[in-house]
Amino acid sequence: MLYTDFIKHKKKRAYRHKKKLNKTVTLYRKMPLKVMSRAWGTINNLELPVVMRRPLIGLYVWMFDCKLNEAADPDLRNYKNLGEFFRRTLKPGVRTVNAEHDLTSPADGRILHYGICKNGILEQVKGVTYSLKGFLGPLTWRGDIDDVNNLSDDEYHQKLKLKPGHELYHCVVYLAPGDYHRFHSASDWKISYRRHFPGDLLSVSPELFMQEHGNMDSFSYTAVGATNVGSIRIYCDEELTTNHRDHGDRNNVRDACIIEGTEMGKSFQKGDMFGEFNLGSTIVLIFEAPRNFEFKVQTGQKVSYGQPLGFNRHVDLL
């Protein structure tokens, strides 16, 4: 009886939490977030008078504990605006890309969550969960599925796993406002597919950009823009524009193939420069690996790009 009462109480608490979360998200979505984001982006890129750059950008450095000693150019007077400082480059040699591990951190940041994806569910940020199907979208790049839009969460989960006996894992890295805001390749892979979700620019799951298909089976690398400044730039895809007034809601998905010369896909090596954010953002990696795959990080741990995330003798990334 006591156990039954405990389960009922737990279900009621979960229901109240979900109801409260839905109300919060609904209220948040009523705010003019895209207008706010573009307005902030305009301010962010206003050229500052040289005399004002050191005090204004210096205040930002102090507030968010930026590691100015790691910047390729530590002289704040040389940054025309805050946007340039957000996208600053690092000095050569201040980061080392681990050569032994197949999967390394794509960015400087903090580990929000990691682990196995269960029952078609991705736990992304602070206990908020998403279905893999809702997060990644339909499996249109798979040619062996008749109806990609009508898969159940469990069916979708199984279709993502390309080898029997493997699991789907995920790792979420959050970039704080003071972090280095360029991001890098997390593995050796070949990108052939991109998907862009315009989103609502929510601080939990705003604008999405996704690359698919690696040279070790497949690999998912999702860059999530932040509230206020949702713009994301991917260096190998100059046609992509994010946080645009004509993009509309999340259902207005934009897919594209990545082609280099006459070849399908573009190859990247681990640690290669990949793209950049404006202000704090999140990167979500989803990958397939054997069941004995072990993460080398802990929740809440600070990481630098190139630092190992996990290891197995043979890792198949999704």
UniProtKB/TrEMBL annotation:
GO molecular function, one term: phosphatidylserine decarboxylase activity
Cofactor: pyruvate
Annotated EC: 4.1.1.65
Keyword Transmembrane helix recorded: no
GO cellular component, one term: mitochondrion
Pfam families: PS_Dcarbxylase
InterPro entries from the UniProt entry: PS_Dcarbxylase, PSD-B
Protein name: phosphatidylserine decarboxylase
Protein's organism: Mytilus edulis (Blue mussel)
